[in-house]
Amino acid sequence: MTGPAEALAATHALAFSDTRGWSADEFRGLLVDPSVFLVGDAACFVLGRVVVDEAEVLTLATHPDRRRQGRARVALEGFAQEAATRGASTAFLEVAADNEAALSLYRGAGFTEVARRRKYYRKSEGTQVDAVILRRDL
Question: Which superfamily is assigned to 4-137 in CATH?
Fold first, then answer.
């Protein structure tokens, strides 16, 4: 029998096929943390965390069969609402600089670039890509 962590891990692996997807054990470990929350379902979700007054998108994943349906936009807005409810006034996230679809989504949701981590992500074929750090007021 598979549970929520396995379903999230399966979607994450498909969504991040060019890097290492998170395991079910990693999801289970995060989901028991009271500062972590999930918005959405296994088809499209945001896993977020609030610490004091800052929120972080830990990951956002959409199953490839469910892309281009507005699900990520809805989940991201749900994340912002839940983070604000939990006391966050600012949200942060990082995204691979070559992930144009995600960058477009995040910029459309009001996130702006504040920093970069050079060569932060390693792709499965061995190339390295910058992480773009984005911020949004809630």
Answer: Gcn5-related N-acetyltransferase (GNAT) (3.40.630.30)
